[in-house]
Specification:
This protein has a single domain, classed as Alpha/Beta hydrolase fold, catalytic domain (Rossmann fold), CATH 3.40.50. The protein is 35% helix and 20% strand. The protein is built from nine helices and eight strands. Strand 1 and strand 2 form a beta hairpin. Helix 3 crosses helix 9 and helix 4 crosses helix 5. The relative contact order is 0.15.
């Protein structure tokens, strides 16, 4: 379908504001750009409690923000990994959607500030995310959580990390996960799919930007062949937790994310996949500008509540 007018308005605003192409910036410049675009205090819902903690990791401590909804626990837990191509983004850039998920899904959301490239090349990010997930599972009671109901999730590069953590947990004896929420995830180190050709430029995330991200993330191109970098290349996807995968029509990553959904299904993993037509990469974090973001949030909430075996929310929300 044609590009949604709201998405077009977002793109037009970026153009008129003179926002430079991300791949032309320095790493620090790109990090500041994403902060300028996505860190707004006004969009943050109040939650029951917010606590910033330091979690032990493989190379020092890992910052984490624990958002807890109002009410009596123990609550199910979503361990969330932010997007940003493994190079940009942080707890602050994704605080608003994490708070919304915590309230709507009635779960603790533990947002993980894993090490970023290029200062910390692959596999530093996946190592941090897996270590943080294990720690949260082992200390769930300390944060008011239920260790029997833990999900992983993330958007874009964060979706990649969530998929990798799910595979790693399966292969290394836990923790046991009940669900994976993968929002337009990166799943393969390649740039030749139809969606890359159709959406290479002009739709917020570009092919040039993805090449820039991958080049900063990997120590050498051959690393991209590993399943820890490209979860689509894993030989076996059986035995993974149920998944909900969200894709956007005008997104270079669309086809690789949908290919991952297809492979999960082929492996017998319960998988729902929804393509959000007419919209762009990043829509999930644009709730203040895109109606489709609200629909995506409702769908994600419904999937999480179902995975956590919670009753439907009041007031018509999933």
């Amino acid at each position: 379908m044609p590009l949604n007018p709201e998405a077009q308005a977002v793109l037009d605003q970026l153009t008129s504001s003179g926002v430079p192409p991300l791949h032309t910036l320095s790493v620090e410049g790109a990090r500041q750009l994403i902060i300028d675009l996505f860190v707004t205090k006004a969009d943050r819902e109040p939650v029951g409690k917010v606590e910033d903690r330091q979690i032990p990791g493989p190379a020092g401590t890992i910052p984490a923000r624990i958002c807890t909804p109002r009410g009596a626990g123990p609550f199910p837990i979503l361990v969330y990994f932010h997007g940003g191509g493994w190079v940009i983004g942080n707890i602050e850039t994704h605080d608003a959607p994490c708070r919304t998920l915590s309230n709507a899904a009635e779960c603790i959301v533990a947002s993980i500030d894993y090490r970023l490239a290029p200062e910390h090349k692959f596999p530093a990010g996946p190592d941090d995310c897996y270590a943080a997930t294990r720690w949260i599972a082992e200390h769930a009671a300390q944060i008011g959580g239920d260790a029997r109901r833990i999900a992983v999730g993330g958007d874009s590069a964060g979706g990649n990390l969530a998929a990798v953590v799910a595979q790693t947990a399966r292969d290394h004896g836990g923790p046991s996960l009940v669900f994976q929420l993968l929002v337009y995830p990166v799943t393969d180190h390649r740039f030749d799919t139809p969606s890359y050709r159709e959406n290479a430029d002009g739709y917020f995330l570009t092919k040039d930007a993805m090449e820039w991200f991958w080049n900063h993330y990997l120590g050498r191109p051959a690393d991209g062949e590993q399943a820890m970098a490209s979860p689509l290349r894993a030989k076996n996807l059986g035995g993974l937790p149920p998944a909900f995968i969200m894709t956007a029509e005008y997104d270079p990553l669309r086809d690789e994310a949908e290919a991952y959904a297809a492979r999960l299904r082929e492996a017998g993993v319960e998988t729902k996949m929804t393509r959000y037509d007419g919209t762009i990469h990043g829509f999930f974090s644009m709730g203040n500008a895109l109606t489709v973001a609200k629909q995506g949030m409702m769908d994600a909430t419904s999937a999480l509540r179902n995975a956590f075996a919670l009753r439907p929310a009041a007031g018509g929300r999933p």
